[in-house]
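Lab notebook, bench 4. We co-purified these components, and the gel suggests they stay together. Before we commit to crystallization screens, I want a quick structural picture of the whole thing.
Request: model the full complex, all chains together.
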Amino acid sequence: MNVMNTANKFRFEIVVFVLVFGALGMTARAQQFVSKAPTAADWAALAKLPDFNGVWERAGVGGGGNAAFGTAAPAAPRGNQPPAGNRGAAPQRGGRGDGAAAATAGGQGGAPSFTPQYEAMRAAADRAPQPEDNSTANCLPPGMPGIMTQPYPMEFLMTPGKVTIIIEAYTQVRHIYTDGRPLPEDPDPKFFGASIGRWEGDTLVAETVGFNDHVQLARGVPHSDKMKIVERFKLTDPDTMSIETTITDPGVLTAPYTTTGTLRRHRNWTISEYICEENNRNYVDQTGKAGINLTVPGAPKKD
Amino acid sequence: MKLSFLLLLLTASLIAAAALPAAAHHSFAAFDITSQKMVTGTVRQVDWTNPHIWLWIDVPNDKGGSDTYGFEGMSPNFLARRGWTRTTLKTGDKITVSYRPMKDGSNGGMFMTGQMTNGKVLSMMGGSDTPER
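Here is the predicted assembly.
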């Protein structure tokens, strides 16, 4: 009994310790922005903005009953995928390993220009043995901005104070706060970072900071904690949206790196689920070796 | 029948010339994308699953039995928007699959096109040859 009491007392002390320091932590974060309940006026103001609501897919994904059977495939087999080893984000079109980048949906663009130190890293990664795949093969999602260029649709939802982007690929969500809050000063690193947005006329301007190490500017090239992405979303006709994506990273990039892309709205589509772990037979190991698990489902059949 | 076969070859070469289907989530490292093979068998199982569908077919071997081949396709999300359903291919269907073989020689690879006994050609990109459902 005495032993139990001692143990319980010790546990109690731990609980007190956690509560006290937890409360201190809360105080330190007291500046967190608090969303206010939307009013009828907020909803009315929303109705005056360009309507981004609905399901969009980047132009050029291909297929879909196109009479030009067999010719509608994307220009690159791994179009807009992050390059190998660039698991999160890096804007890439033209397949793994070529280091050229284009950030956005259907975007075209040359390679970003790096400062000498980072250019050396890029060149070294180019010379090194190429990994056969990146960790999306293991079901980690691409981060920003690669997640915006997947060959899957995205649903935009506009509510007072926020634009939400539901991304079918990897079942991901981006939250762009338009309620006037500032960007976090010291954000935790994330695949998608932290986003705020504002309206400049008919254009939604989203700013995003706070990317994790999965986000790379090119294969083998890390970013700094100053990396920022600015996206400008604008309707160019009722069912077409252009996205201009500009990446800045002082000390890493010699100049802002801008690409543009196009999304098309599909009024008759809904977003589906994409649980990558449902039946993922692909993998890449630590050495960059990729493979496929071809184990026949169910009991092995031997004749 | 001969015409269908030519059509299949033509279709396959068009696809090869144009591009490989966007795989979205992994590279083609495991496949030999410079070659294409064909095999005929009976559908054993269709996995209508993310991130890719898998088609398993039993192919008669020269020992009087059969070997099971596995073929990776696009995702059900992608295909469902391009004319496919989870019952486009069913257990027991006869199919001739044109595919990019596994580099390691395992039985299977990346599904390119499939020809059914009625001459219909299934494509991972959908399109005019995908059966109306």
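The two ends of chain B are 23 Å apart (CA to CA). Worth comparing against the SEC data before the next meeting. Chain B has one domain: 2-23+31-123.
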